[in-house]
Amino acid sequence: MDQIASAEVATTGPKCSGIGCDNPASKLMCADCRNVGMQTFFCDQTCYKKNWKQHKAIHPFHGHKFSGPLRPAYPLSPRRVLPPKIKRPDYAEDGDPKSERIFVGRHKIKVLTKEEQAGVRKVCRLAREVLDIAAREVRPGVTTDYIDQVVHQACIERSSYPSPLNYCHFPKSVCTSPNEVICHGIPDQRPLEDGDIVNIDVTLYHGGYHGDLNETYYVGESAVKNPDNVRVVEASRDCLDEAIKLVKPGALFRDFGNTIEKVAKSRDCQVVKTYCGHGIHSLFHCAPTIPHYAKNKAIGEMKPGMCFTVEPMITLGSYKDETWPDNWTSVTRDGSRTAQFEHQILVTETGFEVLTARLPDSPGGKIAMPVIETNGDANGAVNGTANGASTEGTASAN
Ligand code: MF3
Ligand code: CO
Ligand code: CO
């Protein structure tokens, strides 16, 4: 009787998380795990202490002082798989984007042939479709891991590889960056909350080319009623749209930052300096590097056939960033909110083509500043349907 009962406890009850320990778990729980939403039990203090070194690798956040209110919600879901027939970039297996590390011609900006232009045009259109599908799932209660699942599936349906997956060991298929996260947020078990803002950054690899874009979305009714949300989100949208208007043969990559910072400052916002726009085609990240801040010294001049992203990250408070101990999540040092928009652009003979342009039915889009209630009249802003800047442009002669 006794023996049968204890055997049942050992096989059906929670087991101690100590490595090689077969004891049943006690109520002793790792507090750091609990803080990120995991339930890890040990049999006793001695076993916990013995396992500490290896165990803390599970939750890299031990003792971390978070800059803002956001917390990760672990465990991450298991690594997602792809059908073998989908063509993979070089880093898919070992996490190392070897072809990006070529040293000869590293600073040369590629001019794409007509055929290559057709390739980036195609993948950017697919990436736009996937971003729009993901954005339609944004609502309170939905986890960012679910957004990741939706993106992953939509990529497969388009015979595309989700470029973030295992890029320099990034663990997921998309970046999701809520609130104070500047970029590179890892999809996890945290449900989006009414009042959040969230950036979804989608990149696809298809036919040998990458297509990269992102937008920031308002989560729930409360989000659009928060003037600070609207100020930072619409500032970053306008920064990108104004920057794109500069694109034409002969324009300088260093000039984007002056326009972006001018728009940001006019909304009392700042510009993140650590992360830049980048060349992109058969490589995910390559020359040119495109800073978004003023007075930068970026090298290079635009020529027809060049392809790159512009992706300004704009903050309500200080532009200064720090990285979570997961080595990816970039947050503002002061914990204030931040927003980003990204397009992939092709330089044409006369101006530009926004390869990742919004479609007539794309979710999201510009909204107006909420009108502050003065006499009990609820007066939130309404989600607009405006599609922003035009897809193609011819810069004016002056
Ligand atoms: N999409 C991002 C960009 O705009 C890069 C993400 S890299 C990842 O450049 F590894 F974090 F996915
Ligand atoms: Co991106
Ligand atoms: Co990018």
- Main beta sheet strand tally, sense and closure: 4 strands, antiparallel
Q: pLDDT below 50 for ≥5 consecutive residues: which ranges?
A: 1-11, 378-388
Instruction: Write out the distinct hetero groups bound to the structure.
Output: 2-amino-4-trifluoromethylsulfanyl-butyric acid, cobalt (II) ion
Shape descriptor reads globular
- Gyration radius over CA: 23 Å
Structural class: alpha+beta
- Could you tell me the strand content as a percent range? 15-25%
Mean pLDDT, as a whole number? Answer: 92
Distance between the termini: 92 Å
- Percent helix, as a range, is 10-25%
DSSP summary: helix tally: 8
- Strands, total number: 18
Element pattern in H and E: HEHEHHHEEEEEHHHEEEEEEEEEEE
Structure notes:
Residues 1-11 and 378-388 have low confidence and may be disordered. Strand 16 and strand 17 (351-354) form a beta hairpin. The chain is α+β, with helices and mostly antiparallel strands and 398 residues long. It is globular, with a radius of gyration of 23 Å. It has helices spanning 2-12, 31-35, 45-55, 114-135, 144-157, 220-225, 227-244, 256-266, and strands at residues 28-29, 41-42, 161-162, 175-178, 181-183, 197-206, 209-218, 270-271, 277-279, 286-290, 307-310, 313-315, 321-323, 330-332, 338-340, 343-347, 351-354, 392-394. It binds 2-amino-4-trifluoromethylsulfanyl-butyric acid (MF3) and cobalt (II) ion (2 copies). The site of one cobalt (II) ion has 5 residues, from loops.
